[in-house]
């Protein structure tokens, strides 16, 4: 380990071992702890530290008050050859997510296309780690989850829509996979909180006040609602994610989703969906690699408006961070490392 200001650089293997120990002490069986840590460490490798092992704070608190079931018995059923239904038994979200991913892979391997609907789950981390695992196995993916409500319906004045993330992935055999991972809000609430601390205003496209009107005041924004990307189009997309992840999965949806902040001891019953396509059914690995590389090169060859910021395709920054941190170690907040150690001990 080495210290960089308030960061500590930890080798991936060491961090995984510590993470597994911490989740085992919180009550998870070893194999389940390994599944959870697989997703959270990939998030840290990508540089998505807010969704990495720092999540042991909220996951750990809910495990300790029995809001999450540490010994979840996850069930998988198959009502049709290409469909899998996953009952997460209120388990840790990334554990349910990994079961759903594997189930969707099995369905896609059998039928060419597979979809898994998961219910009785919790926050399952960022989407891009699942997209990477799918891409490395040869599957293109569309993955989504619903979330606690933080967005007002378009034109409304109270929070009834979740900031539900969706992600897309397309593999590039031997090259850089396409990975897009996005939530439905223009910005995260953390950026608005930072503006309030700094005493600066925010763009009126970020959030509304409590009356549903656009505001540049970060305090009013924190008392109000996040704005969806693309206005009414983002609102519609957020609803579509919830219809697939929540309603079709037989999970909670919209205001039926419980807030883990307000009710940490209550099951959230979040839902997820994993739609996978076996790209090997479409052509050879060399065929796909040639087309994916050409696709990326068309984008890369566009003259940049800022010479210091060349054109990229989604996922390139995260994959570069992953390669760098696998080589040099993962930069982790010192307080996150200390919390992991406390749980592990």
UniProtKB/TrEMBL annotation:
Keywords assigned: Oxidoreductase
GO MF entries: oxidoreductase activity
SUPFAM superfamilies registered for this protein in UniProt: L-sulfolactate dehydrogenase-like
InterPro entries linked: Mal/L-sulf/L-lact_DH-like_ah, Mal/L-sulf/L-lact_DH-like_NADP, Mal/L-sulfo/L-lacto_DH-like_sf, Malate/L-lactate_DH-like
Coiled-coil segments: none
The organism's place on the tree of life at top rank: Bacteria
Enzyme class: oxidoreductase
EC number: 1.1.1.-
Keyword set includes Oxidoreductase: yes
Family indicated by similarity: Belongs to the LDH2/MDH2 oxidoreductase family.
Protein's recorded name: Oxidoreductase YjmC
Gene: yjmC_2
